[in-house]
Specification:
With 324 residues, the chain is of the alpha+beta class. The protein has eight helices and 15 strands. The strands form six sheets. The protein has a four-stranded mixed β-sheet with strand order 10-11-15-14. GO terms for molecular function: unfolded protein binding.
Amino acid sequence: MRDPYDILGVAKTADEAEIKRAFRRQAKQLHPDANTSDPKAQDKFAELNSAYELLSDKDKRGQFDRGEIDAEGKPRMHDFAGFGAGGRGGRSRGFSGFDGDTIFESFTFGPEGQTGYTRRGGGGGRAGGPNFDDIGDIFGFGRQQRAAGGGFTPKRGDDVEMTVTVDLEEAAQGASKRVTLPNGKTVELKIAAGTAEGHKMRLKGQGEQSFEGGSPGDAFVTIAYAPHPRFRRDGEDLRTEVMVPLEDAVLGAKVRVPTLSGAVELNVPAWTSGGRTFRLRGKGMPKTGGGAGDLLVTTNVALPETPDAELEALLRKRRDKGAA
């Protein structure tokens, strides 16, 4: 991977705020959803995320700046050519500057995981040498976790949190959503019918990759509801308004009302005033324990679109009669 400073376009002296601003600015430009015609969009976005993950972590950034890890967060092998310059004649060397025994062959392990080290040939055992943790630091393994019985377990990748917004219809009836994860990978997310807002889904192994050879972290996706043009949420109930022609409000009629699962007919009785609310049971949002809330429908009385002379004369006569 390229130098993370170059990827984010910041200087090596940039502070945390500058790095965050640079990442957010480029994330908007490079997000795969905004570059559907670019076949390399996901790779570019993943590279940007990796660079930010490294530079936003104070410890990792320090290790990179000191040359202990590379741009991908992998340990760098150090040059040991300067060790043991006065070596013995006729002995082969594993690393440049080391005797025939390599550095890995120089250590013995006991029940606690390390016992100092021994040299092969001519030296015998010597106590007080460097322990395995020290050697781990030399090779960049200092962040690995000690496993039971000795050895090391690589640290797993970080988990990631994200929010996916769905329409009310998708939440109620179920749907499939293509989601781009923070690592740039696109997955198909199955939204089950009746999924409640705030429901959290775990995508195992879809989090950040481990920089130490461990398993990747997980992605946790929280479901959020998008605002709807026709319905307003009231807890698990929904509210909507419907226009009722004047003659239907006076004489009574059946009026079609939209719901999340399709339109239904509402029986509006005669002499229904504007602002009256009707309840359609089970036509609201899914409930966590099963079932659904209600749809509350408020009527608005609509006058004719064009002036009606007969209606005006009738209402004028009614008004004059009431004033008499």
